[in-house]
Amino acid sequence: MTDFDNHPWAWAKQEEGERTPRKAEGSRWSAGKDLSFVPLRPELVVEVRYDHMEGERFRHTAQFNRWRPDRDPESCTYAQLEEPVNFDLSSVLDTGRG
After folding, report:
1. How far apart are CA 40 and CA 92, in angstroms?
2. CB contact set of 36 (below 8 Å; sequence gap of 6+)
3. Is there a single domain that holds both residue 33 and residue 56?
4. 27 in any annotated domain
5. Is the separation of the CB atoms in 53 and 61 below 8 Å?
6. Burial of 82 (0-12, 13-18, 19+ CB in 10 A)
7. Which residues span the domain enclosing 1?
8. Do 2 and 35 have their domain in common?
């Protein structure tokens, strides 16, 4: 554990001890479960697989892939994540009928 001084998620300091991002809201999956936010020292790097991002948030559960002892935590940013392929949904669903 650590404090928020120089932490990559220092923006959450105002939420310290509360669930983020919605302070007093409980978990819809586990009523009464303690969901307080505790900052950890970013010392290790883990590689994960994921399905979808929503802004800077994994939309679904990220799955552990492997530890990355060859990487420095400061070198890991959202900028390195792959951009999703954009497509026009109407062109995918166009059946050519009318």
Report:
1. 44
2. 17, 18, 19
3. no
4. yes
5. no
6. exposed
7. 1-40
8. yes
Tokens for 69?
């002892």
Q: Which two tokens stand for residue 62?
A: 């990220």
| Its pTM surpasses 0.70 | no
How far apart CA 89 and CA 51 sit, in angstroms, is 19
Q: Angle at the Cα of 65 (from 60 to 68), degrees rounded to 5?
A: 125
Q: pLDDT tens across 1-56, in order?
A: 777 777 777 776 666 555 555 555 556 676 777 766 777 788 899 999 988 887 77
Spatial neighbors of 48 by CB under 8 A, at least 6 apart, are 58, 62, 63, 64, 65
Same domain (yes/no): 34, 49: no
Residue type, 54: E
Query: Long-range CB contacts (< 8 A, 24+ apart) of 22-31?
Result: none
Give the pair of three-digit tokens for residue 89: 């949904």
